[in-house]
Amino acid sequence: MARGDRGAFDELYRRTSPWLAVRLRRRCADEQIVAEVMQETYLAVWRAAGAFAGSAVGGTAVGWLWTIAARRLVDAFRRRAHHAEPPVAAAERAVVPAAEEEALAGTVGGDVGDALRQLAPELREVLRATVLDGLSIRETAVLLRLPEGTVKTRARRARIAMREALT
């Protein structure tokens, strides 16, 4: 892709677009926003493929892709906030564990897994956005439609609860 290979881009899109769409829908129920974010994300990936530095995101193109998509989603929420109410999060429509939560539960066992499962849902959501998704406090606040102070407080409460559970 970095050399402009359209076939490489098509393969990346074929392999990652279903996963990315599902993950975005877990954060946003508005299909129009999801479609816009998908388009903006892959356009950004195509344009910046030569700048990809695997070591900066743990070495994975998928991590880099999600970071771009998550930031584009936050940007979309900011744009829409000026015109209408933010879209309803998909998590508010249905109570189904996210794929990353299931994967995390399957890979994080023992005391850490138990401590994660014991966290209140609102604390887990903040941890997921800040740790798994790598978002800043401000981006997490926009994404979860919470004041920044609330996100900071929940992140701190989650860290304290995890520390207490693990000691």
TrEMBL record:
InterPro entries: RNA_pol_sigma-70-like (IPR039425), RNA_pol_sigma-70_dom (IPR014284), RNA_pol_sigma70_r2 (IPR007627), RNA_pol_sigma70_r4_t2 (IPR013249), RNA_pol_sigma_r2 (IPR013325), RNA_pol_sigma_r3/r4-like (IPR013324), WH-like_DNA-bd_sf (IPR036388). GO terms for biological process: DNA-templated transcription initiation. Residues 112-161 form the RNA polymerase sigma factor 70 region 4 type domain. Keywords: Membrane, Sigma factor, Transcription, Transcription regulation, Transmembrane, Transmembrane helix. The chain crosses the membrane at residues 48-70. SUPFAM superfamilies: Sigma2 domain of RNA polymerase sigma factors, Sigma3 and sigma4 domains of RNA polymerase sigma factors. The keyword Oxidoreductase does not apply. Gene3D superfamilies: 1.10.1740.10, Winged helix-like DNA-binding domain superfamily/Winged helix DNA-binding domain. Residues 12-81 form the RNA polymerase sigma-70 region domain. One of its GO terms (molecular function) is sigma factor activity. Belongs to the sigma-70 factor family. ECF subfamily. PANTHER family: RNA POLYMERASE ECF-TYPE SIGMA FACTO (PTHR43133), RNA POLYMERASE SIGMA-70 FACTOR ECF SUBFAMILY (PTHR43133:SF46). This is RNA polymerase sigma factor.
